[in-house]
Write a structure and sequence with these properties.
Blueprint (H helix, E strand, L loop, with lengths): L2 H29 L70 H8 L1 H14 L2 E3 L2 H13 L4 H15 L3 E3 H16 L15 E6 L6 H14 L4 E4 L6 H14 L2 E3 L8 H15 L3 E4 L8 H18 L6 E7 L5 H12 L4 E5 L9 H9 L3 E5 L7 E3 L2 H8 L4
Parallel strand pairs: 3-6, 3-7, 4-5, 4-6, 7-8, 8-9
Antiparallel strand pairs: 1-2, 9-10
Helix pairs in contact: 2-13, 3-4, 3-6, 4-5, 5-6, 5-12, 6-13, 7-8, 9-10
The protein binds guanosine-5'-diphosphate (GDP) and magnesium ion (MG).
Guanosine-5'-diphosphate binds next to α7.
Length: 404
């Protein structure tokens, strides 16, 4: 990897984002509520089940209890008795390859990345002796597919040890590739554990604008509601009126209470502080805090995030219990740079990688695992509330190389 190029690419991406944001903000300004207009904390509305037809054919999570109507704010739902820490998918859920099953959705989501990774393998290894030249070509191909220099070297070493001089077919290479990739991913494949007994377990969600923070919060909210938990959202990206509205809509759809700023641009830390107090009083079990991602003003963003953390700790010194960094897979190597930057700002506890469905750069997840060793909790493979999956090493690796 060339840090120089990465920094340049990151600046470019930021510049693009800034332009898009300025345009969006100009549009929003017209639609924004007048200054001083208070947006009330809305009592949670009835959860709206997403009809299966709309949900990419996804079945409800097995083991999930039917979503129950959320109580009005005045009548807090008591914490479920003896609730255990929860994962977003009960371990019992099989990785079925059946159409509509989540593995098939993960696999089809990864299709573009798979094509990028395997086209080379197929032409290189129809039937060939694995010699030095072949290994070199393989390594180059892996780097091109965004797996990063270190992970690519490690994979090729594995091939050298086990298969050097042997005649191999493309199918054998794919299977071996899946194994080598899974070995790199296994140490980081941990689900994000949320402990409802903390009432609330606070998840601070950070990342560059447009990576999918708000969407991921919505998807998580839906899953927690399906698991029978009470869940709140904090619309901490207070400058963008559209961002607040987006979260309010998701709150209504999922039955999660939304804590919105009194006016656009209100202090995000103050909002988070009030939201945590309200969530404690109501016994809300999970609180997901959305944040701004204006990386072009790094110092200001760092100050804002640190201030949010500081005020949360004033009420609960163990909060935030998770700091989830959301990365957009389509940005490829840029995602690596973003991890470095956000790790300097806050104590990131895990990653969510989104837009794997629209990306040819899913290989970057392997580079992330190799370079940082941070837990990869979940992957986004689409825009609907169903399209968030826990990250499992073997399934992801096999999906990436196109195997069942
Ligand atoms: N295809 C696809 N789109 C996604 C995914 N996650 C988020 N998006 C889209 O990416 C865009 C930005 O997402 P948003 O949550 O607003 O990003 P934020 O600025 O980080 O909050 C939206 O149009 C989302 O629908 C995903 O996993 N797949
Ligand atoms: Mg957002």
């Amino acid at each position: 990897m060339r840090p120089q190029d990465d920094a340049g690419a990151l600046r470019e991406a930021e510049a693009r984002q800034q332009t898009a944001q300025r345009e969006a903000e100009a549009r929003e300004a017209a639609a924004a509520p007048p200054p001083g207009h208070a947006v009330e904390l809305r009592p949670p509305s009835e959860p709206v089940a997403i009809p299966p037809a709309q949900a990419s054919g996804g079945a409800p999570l097995p083991g999930a209890v039917a979503p129950r109507p959320a109580a009005p704010a005045a009548e807090p739902v008591p914490a479920a008795p003896a609730a255990e820490p929860v994962l977003i998918a009960p371990a019992a859920e099989p990785a079925t390859a059946a159409p509509g099953g989540w593995f098939s959705r993960l696999k089809s989501g990864l299709a573009r990345s798979t094509a990028r990774l395997t086209e080379g393998v197929t032409t290189l290894f129809r039937k060939r002796r694995l010699d030095e030249a072949a290994l070199e070509e393989l390594e180059e191909m892996l780097i091109t597919a965004d797996l990063g220099v270190a992970a690519s070297a490690r994979i090729v070493e594995g091939f050298r040890r086990s298969r050097f001089g042997k005649e191999v077919t493309d199918e054998e290479v794919k299977a071996a590739l899946a194994e080598e990739i899974a070995a790199i991913l296994a140490p980081v494949a941990h689900e994000m554990e949320v402990d409802p007994r903390r009432a609330p377990h606070v998840v601070l969600v950070v990342g560059v604008n447009g990576t999918g923070k708000t969407t991921t919060i919505a998807k998580l909210g839906r899953i927690y509601r399906e698991l029978g938990l009470t869940c709140g959202f904090v619309a901490g990206d207070t400058f963008r009126a559209a961002a607040v509205e987006q979260l309010q809509i998701w709150g209504e759809r999922t039955g999660c209470q939304v804590h919105a700023p009194a006016k656009p641009g209100a202090d995000a830390a103050g909002l988070a502080f009030d939201a945590l107090r309200a969530a404690k009083e109501a016994g809300t079990q999970v609180l997901l805090v959305d944040t701004a991602g204006r990386l072009h003003n790094k110092a200001a963003l760092m100050e804002e995030l640190r201030k949010i953390i500081r005020v949360l700790k004033r009420q609960d010194e163990t909060a935030p219990h998770s700091v989830l960094l959301v990365l957009d897979a389509t940005t490829g190597q840029n995602a690596l740079q973003q991890v470095k930057v956000f790790k300097e700002m806050v104590a990131v506890t895990g990653l969510a990688v989104t837009k794997l469905d629209g990306s040819a750069k899913g290989g970057v997840v392997v580079a992330l695992a190799q370079e940082f060793g941070l837990p990869v909790h979940m992957v986004g493979v689409g825009e609907t509330a169903q399209d968030l999956r826990p990250f499992t090493a073997r399934d992801f690796a096999r999906g990436l190389v196109g195997l069942d």
